[in-house]
Amino acid sequence: MSTKLGYDVTDPTVQLLRASAFMQNGPVKQVRSLEDLDRWVRSQAYYDIIAYISNTSKAIQGHRLTQAFPVTEQMRRLGEIFDGLEQLIVEHTPKMEDSNLALPFGQVRSKAYRTWMRQMYQHVFSKLDEAINVNCKHINELGQYLRRSFGNANTLDFGPANELMFLFFLCGLFRAGILLAKDTVAAALMLFNRYVNVVRRLISTYGLTIAKDPACTIEDYYFLPYLWGAAQLSLNSPFSPMQCEQGKIMDSYRQDYMMLEIIDHLQKTRSGPLSRVALQLWSILSIPTWPQVYRGLNRNYVDHVLSSFGTVEQAIFCELMSFEAVVPIIPLQRAYLGTHLMVDEQENEDELEQKHGQNRWELSPPVSRYVSMEPESFLGFQGSKIQNKSEDSEEERLWMMRQLVDENDPNSEMFFPDREVKGRDSLTSFAN
Hints:
- By secondary structure, the chain is mostly helical.
- Helices cover 49% and strands 2% of the residues.
- The chain has a two-stranded antiparallel ribbon with strand order 1-4. It has a two-stranded parallel ribbon with strand order 2-3.
């Protein structure tokens, strides 16, 4: 009887056979045709993503990036993953002197990016295993979502499909019970913000192009920072949308709000006023109030990004983010911003404070907890830590790493590290 996987593999129960299938296959793609989009919008993962975005938006309204909010030890350990990713960028930054007539600088950057992706892949799984620090069977699934969040090593681009995978990662952390209700604000304002900064460094360092899907971005490589940036400002905002470009506003609040960080980044990298370098964003910011800006952005994200075949066909699904249909069909959650989280809309601020104390932002988790009937040890790295150098554990680790690689995954360059694929065209428009 084998004990390496934590259960008796000779026991032919349905649960263990299913567990074995997850171990071998891991997360898989489910959207392969336009007809599959109908299944996607009825899936548990779709409902969970909508709920997670909406509840997080309600939780972060009125909070600043520089404001004190709860950061648990678990959240701090997850944040350390990004310290390592940024260090890998430093170690694999391409240099002009490395280029020559035989190997132009563009190819040097491409080679350096692929090297970074290989190193990132190993870093993600080993650091997740350390950061979670529990016998978690979902490390494989969470690691697969995270590693797909940083672009495509074959096509040398980044787009909304990668951002969606990071959203799956965040949502999956809450679904697995690794993050709790009190982590909701920090997950968006700290962990997601760290992710955006790493993506910006990847794009500038390796010259990544935008994945071609005009419906899925506003003026840049991502969408969610605009959405959550508007959510931040939907309560007690010190300025209106139309005041964003004012120098005094920018100087006073650029470190506090995601939306101003985006505008500042666009103006610095594209050298010009917002009306010239980001016309669509400039037009959106002509809307009078931040809750109205949020509603418009949220509608566009659901109708265009989450309904885009070009985006969702690259998504992978497993247990935490399931493609199984929701039965019976229930209404999607929506965030109506501009007021505090309240159980009863008639409660005033004093009553809410007295009832919930300082935890009024933590009334419930942003998404429902996943409950599994499967064995708790499959899909984890139990007994096979990276640091263990014994022959048996090293053999087991390599076997598990092979299971994690999807040979049909065009986003994985582990089998073809030197393959050159031309990047996609840059994105220039957004479907309003």
